[in-house]
Amino acid sequence: MLAELSSFKAKDIPYSRVLSSMCTTPHPIAVKAHELFIETNLGDPGIFVGTWELEQKLIAMLGELLHNANAKGYICSGGTEANIQAIRAARNVMRKKKGVDKPNIVIPRSAHFSFEKIGDILEVEVRRAELDSNFKVDVGSVESLIDENTVGIVGIAGTTELGQIDPIEELSKLAVRLNIPLHVDAAFGGLVIPFMDKHYPFDFEIEGVTSITTDPHKMGMATIPAGGILFRSEEFLNALVVETPYLTSKYQYTLTGTRPGTGVASAYAVLKHLGYEGMKQIVDECMRMTAVLVEEMTTLGFEPVIEPVMNVVCFKTEKAEKIKYELYKRRWVISTIREPKAIRFVVMPHVTEEVIKNFISEFKEVLKVV
């Protein structure tokens, strides 16, 4: 049986040949923590009491990193679930406060595809604001789309395609003035931006931010699944509550019922083990490797769409899809974006100088045939 399983696993492409994913090889301490908590189910916290207590410590740790040690939330399956819960909470709060019955949200055109699912699941109209020349959301466009039925606006801190950071401070001013919840999707950037040399305001230090998505299974190097949703106050978490009469807890605010404790344990272990300085070293190295990749690609005649803000970079080319296809045939994985046409790279901790060297060697061969 194990031989059969291994034969299937061997078909997977190893991370050492993946330059498109926002996930990475888990940190060794995360793997040990995962194994220790492998049978836990946070869907019934009265049984797994210690695991639940650990989750509260992790939420406080993440909250403190994001400038609110009193933040409320939980560890979930990933950014999609976190975004669903953020908008669901905002919709429920605004429905109670203002009686909104035909809700809409305003998001940037650069927002993650999870918001497509949100519109369908929550029956919320999704309105898309335009981007400026730097691929940040245009705040004027956001304001023009808001009306009396708007239950939330969204800003991105680390866009999926370019790693760009929206003007969260300006969105916050708008949210505060109009008394509308502001959700920040920092699924990727939440565990990158706090460790960067340049300060980018994006989190609870900004008055109008009511919720933040951040995923420890991305740059936090936790085991999958380990997403996270944090709220500024308990009001929004309470808006998600349903009664659970046959469990050891009386109510539940999560989207899923059964919920593994492995993500909690592995995320906590990595952050506790590395600390702020250790995480900063990881981010600094990813930024260094991003600079190495940019230098190599520039030498080959490729121009970045924007100068990398974080460890995500795209290079303009009309042959993006052909390049991606030829690389995949050679078991190298990159991705593409459509506006503008470009090839996209995410420089995660597994992308070392050796990986870049091997990739560039193969990439030169691909350029001969596209």
Number of strands: 12
Number of separate structural domains: 2
For the sheet with most strands, the description reads: 7 strands, mixed
CATH superfamily of the largest domain: Type I PLP-dependent aspartate aminotransferase-like (Major domain)
Strand content: 5-15%
| CATH class annotation of the largest domain | Alpha Beta
Distance between the termini: 42 Å
The percent of residues in helical segments reads: 40-55%
Structural class given helices, strands, pairing? alpha/beta
What do these coordinates show?
With 370 residues, the protein is an alpha/beta fold. It has 2 domains: 2-24 and 275-367, Aspartate Aminotransferase, domain 1 (Alpha-Beta Complex), CATH 3.90.1150; 28-271, Type I PLP-dependent aspartate aminotransferase-like (Major domain) (Aspartate Aminotransferase, domain 2). Helix content is 40%, strand content 14%. It has helices at 2-9, 28-36, 49-65, 79-98, 114-122, 139-145, 168-178, 234-238, 262-299, 320-329, 353-367, and strands spanning 72-76, 104-108, 125-129, 150-156, 182-185, 209-213, 227-231, 242-243, 251-252, 312-316, 335-337, 342-346. The strands form 3 sheets. The chain has a 7-stranded mixed sheet with strand order 1-7-6-5-4-2-3, with helices on both faces. A 3-stranded antiparallel sheet has the order 10-12-11. A hairpin with a 7-residue loop joins strand 8 and strand 9 (251-252). Helix 2 runs antiparallel to helix 9 and helix 3 (49-65) runs parallel beside helix 9 (262-299). The radius of gyration is 21 Å and the shape is globular.
